[in-house]
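Target protein
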Amino acid sequence: MKILFLDQNKWIELARVHSGKVVSGPLYDAYQYFATALHDGKIIIPLTVANIIETSKRNDPVSRADVAQTQAVFSKGCVYRSRLTRLGVEIKNAVQIAFDYDPLMLPSNWVVVPNFIRAFEENDASAISITELADNYTDSKDLYLDFILRQDDQVRRLAHVKYAAESKSLIERIENRRKLFSGYDKGMRKRAYAAKLFLDHQESIARALNTVGHTLKEMEKLGPKAFVEFIENIPTLNVELNLALARESQTGSLNTNDLGDIENFYTAIPYADVIVAEKNFSALTAQTKLDTVYGLRLHTSLENVFPLQ
């Protein structure tokens, strides 16, 4: 089974077919192809946190329902595991590699799970507030639709105001880092960012090291080059590092859409077989050769995806 990732605009395009607004043409054909491939067990199109948030954020209830129902059909209520869970496994694997142990043997498609609340961090307020709902549903699609379509509108709007404020704060931190590293060459910026990511995740790394009888001090003795290699062996952080550096080197300020794209891509790139997304971040992925590193196909149009290879 192949894993596909669709950015939000592609979900919106499919929703136009699902809702009956498009009844013929290339987009309609793409929809039918995906539906058949899904029925035959050839594909799964899990949702990311950013997909869920963007759908919930749509203020028009009709268009929100159209997108949510389309996502429920094609994702089957499945999502990528939360960043916290993915990083826990990836960091443990990177530690194994750093100290010459055998890498972890992971099941195929281990990052895709049913039940959309598992896309959120374990201590995420949105996830905690709806965990009781999960016991009332045997169908992950129903759980997702109930959340998107029946959540209290005032609560929904307040949640997105908070999310926007957090995004603004993050953009300010990124822009400050941009200014700080502006005089550095690419190699120096990469080493500096890798070191920052290491420090940001130091507690998780220390726990993973402890499980194999090593310490942070031993890790530090491996030298600066080892820090970069270590981050490169953590897929989520490696994608974040490379895409952030590539985007930050472009002119123009970052915006909340950029943050959503980076979050989507560091979730999907290491694990998807096919990504269908907008041109800018698809181009950045190709530019950084992350598509080659992780063996995936990039497309900017739904109509060009099939036939799957």
